[in-house]
Inverse folding.
């Protein structure tokens, strides 16, 4: 994936300032969010809806005339419409590891544990006993700005058309930022596991084989209950494991109605040998075509299958620093009003704990890189 964090420079950039009177619970934000999502307004007071719509149309008209305050307030309204759904979407990180939100003025801190003197033994009742201790260490990590944006047509807003390009642009920003954030986390995870020193559980094969999965599960279950997650291309390969049983040297097909019905309904198994299987969302990137121009590229790599034990201290730790920020500028070439949205994400595998996550990499697919 190339340049996923790069945005073109525009002139006359205006930050979102002076819009403090707009809150996430402001009626204008709630009405705008409902309008761009195509939801019914029956639960709103009619006067509130009319007043909110007129206010947005007035802001759009002033933005066309170059009023920076109006642009700033529109940015705030859009941000509050985008942010809740985006934050809810990236909570998938809770499944992959520990996900925390920290204030903008706080440095994300990774935590790693070390155990010492774990040496239980049989001995005389008066003998000396070694006592186990553990210590932890915290260290800072950097963050990466995840960015997206779209060309805002203020004239469309001024006309009262909320479900056209505005709605499509906001939806695409949510999808784009969610998948860029997940890609960043997965790339950091892949790099840490592949290049780990000492004990590690990393393997590369052509395809996901049952033998490789069973061997990885045997190793990772020692750390706790395991979640298995990956793109549809790899988790769907578990379907082939569900209808067979090995007796001695013979593999015999058998039918399980519950399993067959689950696959028919969802296309996937939800459990395999006691481990929960989760498909990581992987949307099409409509801005990039694949090499032979027959379809679109995907945001994330398809060939990685992660085995993540669930515990109190997760090796994979993800942070969102601060909230979403916005700015708007004018492209002097196209005369478009471009609005940019930014969010800071930090991620890493705790040093010395890399062995607590397993990874099978299907070599039929590309691996992630930053």
């Amino acid at each position: 994936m190339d340049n996923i964090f790069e945005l073109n420079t525009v002139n006359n950039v205006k930050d979102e300032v002076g819009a403090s009177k707009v809150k996430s619970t402001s009626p204008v934000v709630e009405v705008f969010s409902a309008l761009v999502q195509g939801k019914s307004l029956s639960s709103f007071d009619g006067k509130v809806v009319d007043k909110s719509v007129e206010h947005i149309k007035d802001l759009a008209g002033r933005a066309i005339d170059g009023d920076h305050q109006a642009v700033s307030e529109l940015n705030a309204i859009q941000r509050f419409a985008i942010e809740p759904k985006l934050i809810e979407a990236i909570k998938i990180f809770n499944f992959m590891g520990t996900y925390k939100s920290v204030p903008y003025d706080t440095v994300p801190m990774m935590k790693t544990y070390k155990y010492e003197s774990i040496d239980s033994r049989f001995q005389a009742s008066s003998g000396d006993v070694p006592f186990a201790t553990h210590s932890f260490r915290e260290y800072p990590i950097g963050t990466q700005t995840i960015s997206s944006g779209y060309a805002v047509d203020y004239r469309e807003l001024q006309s009262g058309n909320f479900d056209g390009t505005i709605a499509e642009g906001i939806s695409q920003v949510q999808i784009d930022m969610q998948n860029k954030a997940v890609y960043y986390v997965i790339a950091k995870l892949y790099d840490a596991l592949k290049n780990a020193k000492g004990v590690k559980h990393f393997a590369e094969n052509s395809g996901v084989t049952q033998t490789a999965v069973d061997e990885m599960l045997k190793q990772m279950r020692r750390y706790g209950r395991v979640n298995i997650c990956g793109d549809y291309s790899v988790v769907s390969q578990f379907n082939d494991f569900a209808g067979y049983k090995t007796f001695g040297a013979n593999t015999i097909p058998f039918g399980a109605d519950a399993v067959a019905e689950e696959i028919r309904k969802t296309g996937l198994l939800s459990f395999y040998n006691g481990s929960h299987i989760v498909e990581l969302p992987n949307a099409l990137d409509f801005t990039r075509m694949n090499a032979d121009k027959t379809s679109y590229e995907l945001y994330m790599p398809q060939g990685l299958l992660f085995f993540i034990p669930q515990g109190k201290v997760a090796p994979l730790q993800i942070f969102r620093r601060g909230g979403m920020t916005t700015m708007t500028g004018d492209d002097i070439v196209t005369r478009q009003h471009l609005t940019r949205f930014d969010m800071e994400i930090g991620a890493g595998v705790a040093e010395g704990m890399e062995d607590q996550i397993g990874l099978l990499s299907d070599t039929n697919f590309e691996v992630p890189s930053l």
